[in-house]
Each structure stands twice: as structure tokens, then as C-alpha cells.
Amino acid sequence: MIRGAIFDLDGVLLDSMAIWNDLGARYLLKQGVRPEPELREVLFSMSMEQGAEYMKQQYHLDKSSEEILDGIQEMLQDFYFYEVQAKVGAKELLTFLQEKGIPMTAATSSPREHVTRALKRNGLLEFLKRIDTTSEVGESKHSPLIYQRGAEFLGSRPEETLVFEDSLYALQTAKKAGFRAIGVYDSEGETNQAGVEETGEVYLNNLKEFIRYYKKLESE
């Protein structure tokens, strides 16, 4: 029996992973500076603060690290507020689960204001009963706390709660905590797609595929 669903946002409901992959390059191009081809890999393991300092030193930018960080954050905000689109099949899946009487929340590592604006603009916010963020919970998705908070709010036990994730580590966290982990493909996200496929109860190339999977469960 499924009594609740928790959705990651970036790479699951929102087609937003690309911005995180090329944010540094976007910023440099806006400054009239050509980024190095491997910039994405260089910045991947850095915090935003570290990345700002790296770009200041590496590209001799005539700005303080704080000014660079502010510029990057402004670009990120503009992307969520005005550009990011819903993932294919997101609204169809949320509508289906709502019609089945399954309440839904979101669990995200992104800033609340950013994702709230993006969800509202794409007509998805109304489907979600609540949004939990890792910064507000105080623990990353290496801990199951954000999922446990969501399930508690939904009034469902972990084994009755779906968790949709595109990142392998988050999917593994949810599964180890007893949740029904659903793997979601995103072309700009997790590099270990085989791991996502192996970990999830089902692996979705498109969110609408879950509707067929759910109907199959109902018929069994």
C-alpha cells in the first residue's frame, strides 16, 4: 500500500541540473571571459564560496570573491525564477497520484524561495503539501532525516512512502531507511546511472512511466 510520496526537485520534477553544471562558465562568459573546457570538473567538488575564489584567482577577475559569489547567486536565482522548466511527465505524474489520493511533499537541497517560484511558475506547487529543505532540516541527504520528516507529515510509514530521486547517494539513503526508492533518470545528473537503476524499486526514464508501473502494482 502506498500512502505518500516524497519528491526530490532538481533533476526529478524540475529540469534544472544543467544550471548547476555550467553556472561557473555562464558567469565567466557574462564577464566576457572564456572558461577553460574542464571548468565544470574543477568546480564540481567545491562549495560556491570556493568556486568564486577559484575563478577570481584563475581568471584574474577584477572583483572580490564576495562580488563574484553575489553575481553567481543572482544568475542562479534568475534561472529558477524565470527559466527552469518542469521535467517531462512531472505534471501528469503529480496529477495521477493526486487522483489516487496519495499526498505528496518535496525534499530538496536547493533554496526554498528558488524552488517555490519555479514550481509555482510551472504549475506544480499546488500538488505538494509541503517542501522540506536540507538547510532547514540541518542535515544533507546522506542522512534520512529529511525523508523521515516528510513521511511523518504525510502520516505514512517508510515502507508506505515513495521517494523519487535522481542522485544515487540520496536514493541509497532513502532505501536504507526503509523507503520505497524510485530512481529517476536525468541526462545532466548522476553519472552512475547503472547504480540508480540497480538501487531503485523501479527506474524511470520518463516520469510518466511510473503511472504504468503503479497500475501494474494495482493489478497484481
Automatic annotation (TrEMBL):
SUPFAM superfamilies the record matches: HAD-like
Endpoints of the signal sequence: none
A Pfam family per the record: HAD_2
Gene3D superfamilies in the record: HAD superfamily/HAD-like, Putative phosphatase, domain 2
PANTHER family found in the cross-reference section: 2-DEOXYGLUCOSE-6-PHOSPHATE PHOSPHATASE 2, PSEUDOURIDINE-5'-PHOSPHATASE
NCBIfam families attached to this UniProt entry: HAD-SF-IA-v3
Protein name per Swiss-Prot or TrEMBL: HAD family phosphatase
Lineage: Bacteria, Bacillati, Bacillota, Clostridia, Lachnospirales
